[in-house]
Structures are given as structure tokens and as C-alpha cells.
Request: fold
Amino acid sequence: MLTESSNATVCSREESTNVVNSVELNAHAHGSVANRLWAAEQVLDGSTSGTIDIRASESFVSFIFRSLNELRDFDFATSTFVFNNLRRRYRRSVLGFAWSLLNPLLTMTVMAVVFSMLFNRPIKSYALFIFSGMLPWTLMNDSLLAGSQSIVYAEHFLKKVFVPKLFFPLVSVSTETANFLFAMVSLLLLSAACGLQLGFTVLLLPVVALLTFLFAFGLALALSVMTVYFRDLTHILQVLLTAVFYLIPIVYPLNLVPSGFQKVLLLNPFYYFISLFREIIYEGKVPTFTQWAIPTAITLTALVLGFTILKYREKDLIYRL
Reply:
């Protein structure tokens, strides 16, 4: 899984040139903004006597608005990166993009067969149970693994042309979100094959997907900056996420967990996003206010954490690559 996410982030030399050109075209199209931002990036501590770096006293809110405004100049590059990542992932395979549908479908079918026998549950309903938990988990897991390495792997871009630092974690999470959307088609196919009918609550899935996307982006942004300073973090993260997978009720029902340990599960932020998806897909219910409020608060916390770490390390980041 880690290798796949890493390969999706690394551009070949030929494609790198094409994407850099697209970034430069965006920069020229918005020359006044991009040039000012590039010039500001060149201001180093002590490198120019009498020069004051205006970013040193920049407020947190101003930093967020400036960062988001920078991204607007690279909207075309974002779609180019995401498309190239998906194309490389399935390059030279016979089925191509069809694997984005078949892979989650086959994987979760195997898990449904195994765990339905293990827990003595009907395979049809249990398949939907596992699917509703694995979809958001795969999105978050793959986004964090790919996003944590995104800035490190973008070293050659960052040293050639001005690109906002948060651009690369955004591309990684967007790529996994595109894969997630393909997997949602697999969910519809699975439901049809099992004769299960999804309720009207599936109309809420875009809102839940957006919430999960923002949560994954906030964490990926923080991890991508931290990985620049501590390269072993990606390997540690892979082990931690494997442990987290078994510590939250994805392939097993919550009622099988001892009541005393259930309180520990509630401390896991990933649990609330999976619970939200499962409530909509498997239970067919509209989530309560509390079920919306908790993951929303967690998402805001993740975004604040990511932007805070980036704000205080932004100037030094390029020299640590």
C-alpha cells in the first residue's frame, strides 16, 4: 500500500518537465501575484541587510487566506498532477482504470467472506457492513501515507519554480479522493449484486466525503512538513495506521468489543468518520447532530494543526530538503 502511494506521487522525468511547464504557465498567467510571492520567498533571515520579511509578523488568518489564494493560481496544475498520478498508477495494466473499481470490490469481497464466517453473520449484509467501513478508512489511510511524503518527493519542483508548499499534500489527498469516488461505484455494484437497497441517506455521502477529505488534508499537511525534518516518520506512520485499523470497528461490530474498551475506541478520531459513513450507508439513517459535530470539530482541529505547522516552518522548509 505504501509503495503504491509513493509511486503515485513520484513523477517520471518526462512527465515532470510537462507538469513544471504547466505550473510555469499558471505563474505567468497570474504574473503579478506569483512574482510577488516568489520574491517574498527569497527573503532570508540575515541575507539582505535592512530588509524586513513581511511574513514574520503575518497573522494566522492572513496566512491561511494567502495560502489559499496562492492555490488559485495553480488550479490547472492541480488537475494535471492528479490525472498524471492516476494514469501512472494503472499504466501498462490491461484493465487500466478498471482496477480502481475491481481492486476495492475484490478486496472487500474476500474480507466479507472471511469475517462473515468468523463472526457467523450473513455474508450479504456483512459485505455492506465491511464496505461502509473500509471505504473511508482506505481514503484516510492512503491519503496520510502518500501525503506524508508529498513535499519530500516534490523537492525537484520546489527548487525549480515557485509552488505553494500545501499544493503537494493537496494533490496527494485529491488523488486518493478520486480513487475513493471510483470505489463508490464498486459499492453500488456490490449492493446490486447482493440485492441490497441503499436508502435516501446516501445523498449525504458528498458532505461526509468532503468532511473526510478536509480531515485527511489537514493531517497530511502536518505530516508532510514533519517528514521533511524526520524522514523515518513515514515508516512509523505505516505501522501506526496498521495498528489503528485493528483498533477501530471496521471489520468487526462495536458490540463485540468489551464495554470497558469501547471508551478507548471513542478516543480515536478515525472512528467518528467511519461511524458517520456506516450510519449513512449501512444503517440507512440520518446522523444525529452529535455525530456531525464531533467529526466536524476534529476536522477543524486537523486543519488548524496542519496550517500552524506549515506557517512556522514554511521559510525553512526548502533548505531542509
About this structure: Residues 2-320 form one domain. The two ends are 24 Å apart (CA to CA). DSSP finds 15 helices and no strands in the chain.
